[in-house]
Amino acid sequence: MTNSIIKHDITSSDAQAMQQMRAMLDANPKLTFEPASRAAFDGIMGQAPAPEDVTIERGELGGVPGWWTRPTGATKGSVILYLHGGGYVIGSADAYRNFAGQIAKRAGAAAFVADYALAPERPFPAAANEVQAMHKALLAQGYERIAIAGDSAGGGLALSAAADADAKAGKIVGVVAMSPWIDMALSGRSFATRADADPLLSRDTLAEAARLYLGTTNPSDDRLPRIDKDLSKMPPVRIHVGDAEVLLDDSLRFAEQAEKQGVESAVHVWEGMTHVFPSSFAMLEAGAEALADIGSFLAGLLNKPAKKRVLVLGATGGTGRGIVKTLNERRFAPVALVRSPEKARDLDAVIVKGDASDPAAIARALDNVDAVISALGTPASPFREVTLLSTATKALTEAMRNKGVKRLVAITGIGAGESRGHGGFLFDRIIMPLLLRKVYADKDRQETIIAGSGLDYVIVRPAVLNDKPRRGTVRALLDLGGFHGGTIARSDVADFVVDQVENDAFLGKRPLVTW
């Protein structure tokens, strides 16, 4: 566990640059947090150089507009949610897209820069609610590693969001905050001790921003950034702050709380630097060094080997549940397409709501997926036509081709071998005609579709399934020896099926799975 405050001396080059910057700032009025200041602030922040080899395009996440920045070769399954500064009143994703793109490039992961709600038009809790909505959207899209980053008000918002969430369940692997505004009550000592040193902010300007953002909400509201928050579920945190800014004490007090609560954190304090100095990385050595540290910190969290994502159809059935469990045990990342999320509440998987025969739902579920396991079942009926297996499989194979997903492992029915002539007299002449003939007819159609799909498929035909592995003489007597292959436990089928996600031994084949 690392909890530390790291101090950096100013270089002679940066001392000269800061002197010039201060002269320029002193000649202009201090920053004010009001809608009229938005264009001027965006003009300043928008001067960050555009990153090379990074695609920047408009997007939307959880209903919130913004910009996606995607570096060439970005790690699959990793993402940064960037929350811009501006006292909850000014600032925009458009102005920050280049700066966030520079962070994304150094981290080797895509970043979404959010145009979250601003006051006074949309005061608290609109911004906090939108951060929650974006986090949920990233989980729904299957991201396995999520980092939240931000500066100033966005830094406080990032820290608050990570503290309020269960980081492990929410896939939040780390937080970066630059000059974060954490204490909405403005009680830090540095408002007095750094008042003359800070050329950008003051207690009065931040008090006005707090008034516009909070309205009648008390600064001690549990949903707001606060120094005394419960940090017990926080992931690792990296903060960069200047020692010449009135918000310095917010970072130092956070470091104290993090150490008390066992949170892994590091706060870098830079001599002579002012508010959000890393955004001036093109002219300040400290800014470039801080930006490199941020990128390295995020890369270490986000660039771990990606778990292979596997979509499971039929995940709420007995065999499907076993497959999801086995996928997790084997360090895969299961995704489940389900009609009823209520039935899937206990599944340890990314849940996508939808019907397996709906092409649009399948397309959504296939986002960022590496392979598919189909464990679809259908009620046995001697009276009605069965078409679910073939209808869903046709929609699935077409969607997989469109999405470029090649590997399909499909369980195509209860019972061994072909649909006819495989189960002995009892099964073929009595059980199957009474209950399963229509199911097996659709299984035949399903297998024909898969065989002609052009995918890397394995068609798995389990023997008659039961809930437990065969144990002892009693279960042996119940194995119905007349069956070709007898019976097999669902857990054993799950083991075999998950093996086929990466095993090429049975590609293009129809293995019979039995004891």
UniProtKB/TrEMBL annotation:
<dbReference type="InterPro" id="IPR013094">
    <property type="entry name" value="AB_hydrolase_3"/>
</dbReference>
<dbReference type="InterPro" id="IPR036291">
    <property type="entry name" value="NAD(P)-bd_dom_sf"/>
</dbReference>
<feature type="domain" description="Alpha/beta hydrolase fold-3">
    <location>
        <begin position="80"/>
        <end position="278"/>
    </location>
</feature>
<dbReference type="InterPro" id="IPR050300">
    <property type="entry name" value="GDXG_lipolytic_enzyme"/>
</dbReference>
<dbReference type="Pfam" id="PF07859">
    <property type="entry name" value="Abhydrolase_3"/>
</dbReference>
<dbReference type="InterPro" id="IPR016040">
    <property type="entry name" value="NAD(P)-bd_dom"/>
</dbReference>
<keyword id="KW-0378">Hydrolase</keyword>
<dbReference type="GO" id="GO:0016787">
    <property type="term" value="F:hydrolase activity"/>
</dbReference>
<protein>
    <submittedName>
        <fullName>Acetyl esterase/lipase</fullName>
    </submittedName>
</protein>
<dbReference type="InterPro" id="IPR033140">
    <property type="entry name" value="Lipase_GDXG_put_SER_AS"/>
</dbReference>
<feature type="active site">
    <location>
        <position position="152"/>
    </location>
</feature>
<comment type="similarity">
    <text>Belongs to the 'GDXG' lipolytic enzyme family.</text>
</comment>
<feature type="domain" description="NAD(P)-binding">
    <location>
        <begin position="314"/>
        <end position="503"/>
    </location>
</feature>
<dbReference type="Pfam" id="PF13460">
    <property type="entry name" value="NAD_binding_10"/>
</dbReference>
<dbReference type="InterPro" id="IPR029058">
    <property type="entry name" value="AB_hydrolase_fold"/>
</dbReference>
